[in-house]
Amino acid sequence: MSDMEQSNRLRDVVNVERYPVDDVNTQEFRTLLKKTRETYENDGIVTLPNFILQEAIEKSVAEVERAKGSEWFTKSTHNVFLDSGDDSFSKDHIRNRELPTTVASLAYDRLDINGPLLTLYHSDSFCVFLAQVLGMEHFYRLADPLGAASINIFPPGTAHNWHFDESVFSVTIMIQKPESGGLFRHTNPIREKGNETDNLYEVIEDIVDKKNDIASTLKFEPGTLSIFSGSRCLHEVTEVHGDKDRLVAVFCFATKKGIRNSAKVQELFWGRVVD
């Protein structure tokens, strides 16, 4: 697809009047990039409200509804670092404490390649924008046939407990809010991966146990793009209530070509393994 064709398709998805990501060679693009990058570097998160056009949001919700029944539910426990723990601490220490999470995910291969979400994901100018916001010289779409782009589905009664992401950053778009609950709560950057201290553990424990909750609640409306440093900021999604699911698109990228999830991760989040 030519650059012109990509740009035209992108204009059907993105509010380019406000967020001119369709042409990386303009002064408007450079101005948007500078402001977005500064906010991300300072706060560990930046949101762009009304990034997606209303018609594209509605089409995306309809796309997910048509694919319902193909999602995979994960009901599990994890520690805040999403790893196997550290034997030098007790099982009930905040380093190792297991927290419950329930969420469903709709895999990349269940999404419409011509739909709004994958049109955005496969836009080269959008990738350039993200790479420059994140300050990454090498930036590629994930090559995973299930996890390259997916939809996190939170039906009523589900939640994602406190954790740090394994990946350095995440790119998400709110597609549908629930009637209540489903709040995205996060701290400012409090962790440097690989340099966890006793002071950090105390801060985490105070948040998880609601002793001194320093987390903020993100204003995350449908159509909002979020770029988030999830490996540095502790975060959760609170329990969803009401009759509507919480729907969030998750876009995954890598710093090397050809990167994909392990078979273990594919099995955990999508219930199957695809080469």
Give an account of the 3D structure:
Helix content is 28%, strand content 23%. With 275 residues, the protein is an alpha+beta fold.
Topology diagram in text:
Layout: H1 3-11, H2 27-43, E1 45-48, H3 54-67, E2 72-78, E3 99-106, H4 116-121, H5 124-134, E4 140-141, E5 149-154, E6 160-163, E7 170-176, E8 180-181, E9 184-186, H6 198-208, E10 216-217, E11 225-228, E12 235-237, E13 240-241, E14 246-251, E15 253-254, H7 263-270
Helix pairs in contact: 2-5
Provide the gyration radius in Å. 18 Å
Helix content: 25-40%
Poorly predicted runs are: none
Tell the overall outline.
Answer: globular
- Distance N to C terminus: 26 Å
Class by SSE composition: alpha+beta
Order of helices and strands: HHEHEEHHEEEEEEHEEEEEEH
Mean pLDDT: 94
Q: Sheet with the most strands?
A: 7 strands, antiparallel
Side-by-side strand order of the widest sheet: 1-11-7-14-5-3-2
What's the number of helices?
Answer: 7
State the total count of DSSP E strands.
15
Amount of beta strand: 15-25%
Summarize the structure.
28% of the residues lie in helices and 23% in strands. By secondary structure, the protein is α+β, with helices and mostly antiparallel strands.
Q: Can you give keywords for this protein?
A:
single chain; 275 residues; alpha+beta; 7-stranded antiparallel sheet; 4-stranded antiparallel sheet; globular
